[in-house]
Amino acid sequence: MTTEIEKAGPVDDAPPPAPGNIRAIPVRHYGRWVTAVITIALLTLLVLAFARGDVSWGAIPDYFFDSEILKGVRNTVWITILAMVLGVALGIVLAVMRLSKNPVTAAIAWGYIWFFRGTPVYVQLLVWFNLGLVFDYINIMPIYKDEWSDFMTPFLAALLGLGLNEAAYMAEICRAGLQSVDEGQTEAAQALGMSHTKTLRRVVLPQAMRVIVPPTGNEFINMLKTTSLVIAVQYWDLLQATSEVGQNSGATAEMLFLAAAWYLILTSVLSVGQYYLERYYARGSSRSLPATPLQRIRANVLSFSNRSGGVSV
């Protein structure tokens, strides 16, 4: 009896022929090129419009390192750092108060956050600067006593207006970071006999920093730009300096462009610092750290070279 295999004929066990070299051709994305050309054309037209405008661009490099401008830059950086330190320190306290089981403590923290987030920073600065209408003098019996107008200087009004407002936002950022840590971490620390303060400092906060750092970096950059509002309390910052120099030199618009250039430089430096700080705190949560800008540029160059030259398999 003939089987099915015999009818089908002999089985060919010979291996298939080896394929030749395959040349991979990248997909053409014509839409991307069209979009890039249109974007470059629009940017070129914008640059030409500014170049042909009635602006004395030569005044910008002439005053870029002026002593009054540099003083404004220093004061801007200084008030930014101090306001952020005050905001972060008070924000951590408010976040812990907000998470407290004591209803009075939690209510006080909630009321603080509600008030300072609900009123504009500009208004808060003016209120601090004009509190002399309410308080004639400040009297801390054993420590300090003076008239309110002498006590509330432009620097102090700027620091309190910016720092106390920032604390409300930092409180919510810190609260989100603390709540992102699994409760089992706290329970394990308490089982080992650690106090609540030590658990918070050694177990919870180090893990919460991964969530807290990115928005805090954004707040730092935003604070640098918000310092331009302290002109309302007559504090000598970058905007105040450029405005004064612009009025005295007659180059008002040019000095505004100069201020924008300094703000861009300062925010760029802070952005680089924020990137590497985020990279540092991502070590414990990411299997592979994100590529640095130099690594990305190198990878893009190699990828472009491979695409242009083809890939052989």
Report on the architecture of this protein.
This protein is mostly helical and 313 residues long. The protein contains 13 helices and four strands. The strands form two sheets. It has a two-stranded antiparallel ribbon. Strand 2 and strand 3 form a beta hairpin. The longest helix is centred in the first third of the chain and has 32 residues. It starts with a helix and ends with a strand. The mean pLDDT is 83.
Biggest sheet strand line-up: 1-4
The number of E-state strands comes to 4
Secondary-structure element series: HEHHHHHEEHHHHHHHE
Measure the end-to-end span: 49 Å
In what range is the share of β-strand residues? under 5%
Can you tell me the overall shape? flat
Please provide a brief summary of the model.
This protein is mainly alpha-helical and 313 residues long. Helix content is 70%, strand content 4%.
